[in-house]
Design goal:
By secondary structure, the protein is α/β, with parallel strands linked by helices. The protein is 42% helix and 13% strand. It contains 13 helices and 12 strands. The chain has a 7-stranded mixed sheet, with helices on both faces. Helix 4 crosses helix 9, helix 11 packs parallel to helix 13 and helix 12 crosses helix 13. The longest helix is centred in the C-terminal third of the chain and has 22 residues. It is globular and about 60 Å long. The structure holds pyridoxal-5'-phosphate. The site of pyridoxal-5'-phosphate has 13 residues, from loops.
């Protein structure tokens, strides 16, 4: 009899894409929805970046290229790392990838065996859980607590380490909470990883999206220069508004990057060269666009946090990075699934239940503020009307 593989039964995907499909169906039926559900910048990619890709296409860069990435792109990534993280990796430590998402798969596949354990934040980016289960690996969630501003607590990580732990995944600034870990906390996690001789995957896709000077970005890669155990996952989707381009970059120990590169070669051959030319321009060109987007995101974050804190039964921290807020909605008298459903179906506001990101997200919802201030005001007004109406009943 024909049947699916055991692994296929464990693929979960990303729940937000299912919500997006439902929202789009409602829109096709003529419903007006305010979107807070998906982490996709509402800005278009900068024209200089688009021009670099077009130029490359016109010049005939339409063929296979090196599986590890164009040499110029890898060097540009080394330069960017030197500027942001104060060390220059060797070119052999850099792998150019089709997005940051797939780096999680490459790393887990190359570093962890079925039956082993990987420590992840709970709640976390759902890809971590889906990849781990697909690979037969046990995710061990470390609860992010509101009273700790959703920062991963090193003591909790220590308590979660067992002799089966092979990898610790950290993500700062974090999806879904926007939390930014403090440098000393990241140092502690690094020391722990060294003490237990496990790998550390640092998902730094939001590294350019940090708001306040007091909250500065810090990476465990600054400790070992990605030579010993740190693998950095980075990508162009968020800060450069390039989600549709599918471009990312992994930096890690040379032997690990070599294997991850072979996996990329096996599954995707290479990243399109014209996409990489766009990436080089994103790194080397003017950063004015990124600065302008960040200024706008900061204004939106502040408005959204203030607005949410004014809603009955809702309280919300002001996160230090990324473009998400993660309000506690327990005071609204609904669980997070009901809250998200009521807001979508009855108020026309799309938010995601926090538990889509792991059990630690129960009692919370995630909103992405990659949408205009006007939409934020409208979304807040709709939520207020719905919550006040409910309270009156
Ligand atoms: C924490 C985190 N890592 C990785 C990704 C994937 O990004 P990419 O578009 O580069 O695959 C996302 C996207 O939402 C994310 O939130």
């Amino acid at each position: 009899m024909k049947k699916l593989s055991a692994a296929a039964h464990h693929i979960e995907g990303q729940p937000m894409f299912k919500v997006l499909a439902r929202v789009q169906e409602m829109e096709r039926q003529g419903r007006d929805i305010v979107h807070f559900e998906i982490g996709d910048p509402d800005f278009d990619t900068m024209p200089n970046i688009v021009a670099a890709a077009c130029k490359s296409l016109r010049e005939g860069e339409t063929h296979y290229t090196s599986s590890m990435g164009l040499h110029e792109m890898r060097v540009a990534s080394c330069d960017a790392t030197a500027a942001s993280r104060r060390f220059r990796p060797g070119v052999e430590q850099v792998l150019i990838t089709p997005g940051a998402n797939i780096i999680v798969y490459y790393a887990v596949r190359c570093l962890v065996d079925p039956g082993d354990e990987v420590i992840v934040p709970d709640p976390c980016f759902p890809t971590y859980l889906s990849v781990l289960r697909f690979c037969g690996v046990k995710p061990v969630g470390v609860r992010l607590r509101e009273e700790n501003e959703f920062r991963m607590n090193p003591a909790d990580i220590r308590a979660a380490i067992t002799d089966r732990t092979r990898l610790i995944i950290i993500n700062s600034p974090q999806n879904p909470t926007g939390a930014l870990m403090k440098p000393h906390e990241i140092d502690e996690v690094f020391d722990m990883a060294r003490e237990h001789d496990v790998y550390l995957l640092s998902d730094e896709i939001y590294s350019r999206m940090v708001y306040d000077d007091e909250h500065r970005f810090y990476s465990p890669s600054m400790r070992d220069q990605c030579r010993e155990r740190t693998i950095v996952a980075n990508g162009f989707s968020k800060a450069f508004a390039m989600t549709g381009w599918r471009l990312g970059c992994a930096i890690g120990p040379e032997d690990v990057i070599e294997k991850m590169g072979l996996l990329l070669e096996t599954t995707s051959s290479c990243v399109p060269p014209f996409i990489q030319r766009a990436g080089i321009e994103a790194i080397r060109g003017s950063q004015e666009g990124v600065r302008a987007m960040m200024a706008e995101y900061r204004t939106r974050r502040d408005r959204l946090v203030d607005g949410l804190n004014g809603l009955p039964g809702v309280r919300c921290l002001r996160p230090g990075g990324a473009f998400y807020v993660f309000p506690n909605i327990t005071g609204a008298g609904m669980d997070e699934h009901t809250f998200a459903q009521v807001m979508l179906e009855e108020a026309g506001v799309a938010v995601l239940p926090g538990s889509n990101f792991g059990p630690g997200g129960a009692g919370f919802v995630r909103l992405c503020y990659a949408t205009s201030l006007h939409n934020i005001e409208e979304g807040l007004a709709r939520m207020r009307r719905r919550l006040e109406h409910r309270k009156g009943h």
